[in-house]
Design a protein that fits this description.
Four copies of one chain form a homotetramer. In chain A, the strands form two sheets. Chain A has an eight-stranded parallel barrel, surrounded by seven helices. A two-stranded antiparallel sheet of chain A has the order 1-2. Chain A is α/β, with parallel strands linked by helices. Chain A contains nine helices and ten strands. The first copy, chain A, is globular, with a radius of gyration of 17 Å. Chains in contact: A-B, A-C, A-D, B-C, B-D, C-D. Chains A and B meet through helix 6, helix 8 and helix 9 of A and helix 6, helix 8 and helix 9 of B.
């Protein structure tokens, strides 16, 4: 497998560091062999819903809690999140359950504020090329969850991670979340080949977000299993107490029961994977 | 999930026929719940190599034998297959092992000839839109393996199957083999979301060909497992006695040992799948 | 500009033949410097409409008449053309006006029949990879209008032309008609960069079909002018006596008046082009 | 032409404001009917080269001067521009020639600084989805040159402009610069259909940057002419005193002589366009 550009990503590469990077976040280890599951709503809507979600996903085996406070939106007229109040609710739900919290940060000026409330800083697909943001989150010292832009090559994702690593922060989790293609039946085309390719080229852990890619609930389960079978180190899943009334991304969010079913299937497939990988 | 065009595919749809279609080919049932594996070389090169391959893949659990006699090629200067001689070799290897044979047919005038030697007629990605060919293979009465064109939507694949079904031949197997995207690290992007979507919209069985999509041997195993985890009814895999010296598609072909390893992993994952699907 | 594959197209290349190929079709020269215009309906619907269209487009400056008798369709339930009767109507309209006729042929078995009635044989986008058809049209001795598949690279289009040229028929006209991308506002994305690239790599004439790409009438004029400005040797345009009631492709067809307006704009732009090219 | 999302762009639409928006920048009017030309190097390399370039492009008819001081790069190891020093050189070259200066701003914290030195603030393709940056440039009161992301639909570009307009700054110039497709012979595929579509949907002026899309010098001229023929309000072109030794984007930069040739061709085509548009 060859990189196409003259200047290669260095610090993220297997040739720089042979052993897989394992990232410790509170009680959780990302990249240690057992898949981790990050679950929660697209957006924090109020304290009750995020707390309820945290408890319910924890009861079904989730390892980390996600919830958006600052939401990037195509239209300025869409719901853009609760901001600071959302961060506080998320931190409270995290404190109650002990699940470490993951949330997105949109601009360098918010990094300090978000760092106070979250355990992992997410850089979303729209910001994968935002060097100023990548350097700012690097400086926070927090682990960074870096999503692939929907029209970024695998190599460009690795270069984006390099912006974080070269500032001395090696705690980067890569995330495949679907690329844009001509197929209209899914919001994006989940590129699961990226998983073994990234694992091959880089020592960083790789997770998959099937919810945004497929855009419809009943496709999330098969694609989540496929992601784990392809070798992913974890999943990021949208779960909502009441998907039909969600303020954003309702159609692709799982209810608690569906999430529970997915977790049970996942357990079996992870067991198999472990057996044939070793 | 909605179709985008005014005229919908009818005969292939779940609303026309609710129960999944199971296709009997000699001793094999495609679409009966247990994944089937079609294995063999991209091109039949001589009698010995196809016979050896047939025996070796059979020993490791393959259900059907593939081998190309008429090869569609981008360049007229590339190797285009042994033609009739290749068909005869394939039929002989099939007779010896009892594995039903799958081979591609390129043009309506060849359908009768190919039907004499093969158990399943393959319509390749380049011919998915070739209505005259689809109608000719329909008329052969043989099962048809229909590959998705690399820039066809899921709906267009269903419409292509409709050309076969409306001639009274309902024995069609759909095959996802990768779509063309901007990502240069794989030949095509395997669209595994197509599997649950096709299973949802249609009663026809759906298999996956990971070899052509990823284009590199070591990516075939993870993507094959992912395909099965996503719900595929089977796999089509390129296997060659000596991939390094293959006349075509060498880099993506598995050797016998790699194929054996894949079959063992597959068994475990299929067992898990069966348990949680029921 | 480099080709990506090991085996290059040879006979179509500038290194094989330096001077541009000019193709004589009755009184028309394609590739002689002055843009040619092929106009007519997507499908021949009856004798009156094709004769009327031929007369009207001729009066406004068209050089050749197009009209489909065998229509490739995504759905088997769509209108698929009048067949032989359509061919005869087209030939009659061509005889009356003296405009040479262009029509599509779908399968090798139809080549002889279509050759009797048409002056140029069109191989459509869906058949660009159909080697048997390319070789059959090559053998007809007629000029071939070869459309780029919506999924084909520029290099693959050149390889497809090579299938015709290597059979001794050098009278091939290449046609850009839009590639498939993620943009939903047009049916296809017209890739006008392909025009100067093809002219650079090959000696064959290159025309553009903006109608199929943009899919909407009012976008045809600007894209037609852009194609000529980019250096195209001609245009292929859908014109219908009454676009609103067309049996196929109505929304992208021009009426006679719109076609006349386009021809007047074209004349001015061609004059300018000639002045700065020399 | 219909928008696909529920929430439409409002302020940028023709239904909100019927007359085309004309933007005054010093002595230049963008969107007034006559195409404007923005020319200059990808990156300001030193005072001499930017001053020389400014004088030479002015002598050949350029209306505005471009030059990058803050360069977004895929790799953190590539040249990222001279920063503040580059801004000062650009402003000096602008002062000497009287050509208004256009330069890119990468992050909200730089907006104030860049505004002091530039007449138009450019938001690049990588930042089209960066809401915080769009709102910051809106607040500067300067005209904004907004480039389409290579992964963005036409509708998403309009929504991005809406982030600026809804802050009360209506001086936005839209720029098509190529989208990412499967075609490897060009860096991006210039989507010229976007020009008439944007002009149809929005009152904002639309320019085209052919240099980044095609990535090779000799394709810039035909695509620049095509852009104007398609109705663009202007062009953005990379011009460098010595393209072979440019620190970035050399292969696609024009030398002064090539730029002069382009300007002469442009003049003729603009004259024609004016005649048939009225």
């Amino acid at each position: 497998m060859k990189m196409t550009s003259n200047l290669h990503p260095k610090l993220c590469s297997r040739s720089y560091k042979k052993e897989p990077t394992c990232i410790e976040v509170g009680p959780v280890y990302v990249g240690a062999g057992n898949p981790v599951v990050i679950a929660g709503p697209c957006a924090v809507e109020d304290l009750d819903m995020i707390t309820e979600t945290a408890r319910e996903v924890q009861a079904r085996g989730a390892d980390l809690l996600r919830g958006g406070a600052f939401k990037p939106r195509t239209s300025p007229y869409s719901f853009r999140g609760l901001g600071l109040k959302g961060l506080k609710h998320l931190a409270e739900a995290s404190r109650i359950t002990g699940l470490p919290a993951v949330t997105e940060v949109l601009t360098p000026n918010d990094v300090l504020k978000v760092s106070k409330y979250a355990d992992i800083l997410q850089v979303g697909a729209r910001n994968m090329h935002n060097a100023a943001l990548l350097e700012a989150v690097a400086g926070s010292g927090k682990p960074v969850l870096l999503k692939r832009a929907w029209m970024a090559t695998i190599e460009e994702l690795l270069f984006a991670s390099e912006y974080v690593l070269q500032r001395g922060n090696f705690r980067v989790i890569l995330c495949e979340r679907g690329i844009r293609t001509f197929e209209p039946m899914t919001r994006f085309t989940l590129d699961l080949s990226a998983v073994p390719i990234l694992k091959d080229l880089s020592h960083l852990p790789v997770i998959v977000d099937p919810s945004h890619a497929v855009g419809r609930r009943h496709l999330v389960l098969p694609m989540a299993l496929a992601a784990i079978a392809a070798g992913a180190d974890g999943l990021m899943l949208e779960v909502h107490p009441n998907p039909e009334s969600a303020l954003s991304d309702g159609p692709q969010s799982l209810g608690f029961e569906e999430f529970g079913q997915l977790m049970r299937s996942l357990e079996s497939i992870s067991a198999v994977r472990t057996s044939f990988r070793t």
